[in-house]
Amino acid sequence: MVQALHRTPVRGPTFIRLLASLTDAAAPSSPPPLPDRLSQWLDWNQAIALSTVLDGRPAQGDGVPFGSDDEDECAQLRAALAQAIAGEQAFARQDATHVEVGIDYAIFRQRYIAHQRAIQAATGRLRGKLRDRLAGASAGMARLAALDASMEIVLSPREHELLAAAPRLLEVHFERLRQAAEAADGAQGAQLPSGEASAAWLDVFRKDMQSVLLAELDVRFQPVEGLLAALRAS
Question: Which InterPro entries match (predicted)?
């Protein structure tokens, strides 16, 4: 049976550790401090924008009070996104014993990107709604809401660039698993029709890609969870 590749574990979120374990992507064992990383991501205009928010005193708005409905909405939307990933047909185990050697990665890339966009749209809408709640809670919470809005604006381009690498890295994993399966079939003298190879590797890949996408869902919901925590404490 084809097994996923395993390398020395790296520290970090599940999303990073999964990608590092499935590909040749290198992850630092000791990441640089957050201020150092931010200095690499922000230009001076963005730094000034953040400084303005930190030094300012935004007025408290007349936001709608936070309630359990907000938490329920976030939980339900997250569950729906996770269910869509779990039920994605492209990631489902197939009944076929053999698969065409020339199967294209394109369909997997397309479906991964489609789920990425759905997650991005949902979390963006939730962040905006929760910030409106924060702005109406207190002056301090209004400042936090303004800071989150500014952080989303200045960091989104870098976030999109980094997360867009996930489908490309998974393509490397796809090709490596396929080549390993073809080599194994050849070494074992498998009597398969021309143009076909064992399908076990493809089921491994589908499961791996689904796991990475679910881990990305967790990463993208972290700002939403942070805003919810702030609202609970307000």
Answer: DUF3348
Helix and strand counts by DSSP (H, E) for the chain: 9, 2
The 10s digit of each residue's pLDDT in 43-86 is 656 666 666 666 666 555 555 555 678 899 999 999 999 999 99
Give all strands (DSSP E) within the chain, no chain letters.
98-100, 196-198
Tokens of 154: 């200045």
How far apart CA 211 and CA 183 sit, in angstroms, is 26
Cβ of 132: how many Cβ atoms within 10 Å? 13
- The answer, as to whether pTM is greater than 0.70, is yes
Residues recorded for the chain: 234
Pair 208, 22: CB distance under 8 Å: yes
Query: 53 near 87, Cβ under 8 Å?
Result: no
The residue type of 160 is H
CA–CA distances in Å: residue 35 to residues 27, 46, 133, 159, 223 = 18, 14, 29, 16, 18
Domains of the chain, by residue range, sit at: 97-125+152-234
pLDDT, mean over the chain = 79
Return the SS3 of 117: helix
pLDDT digit string, tens, across residues 217-231: 999 999 999 999 998
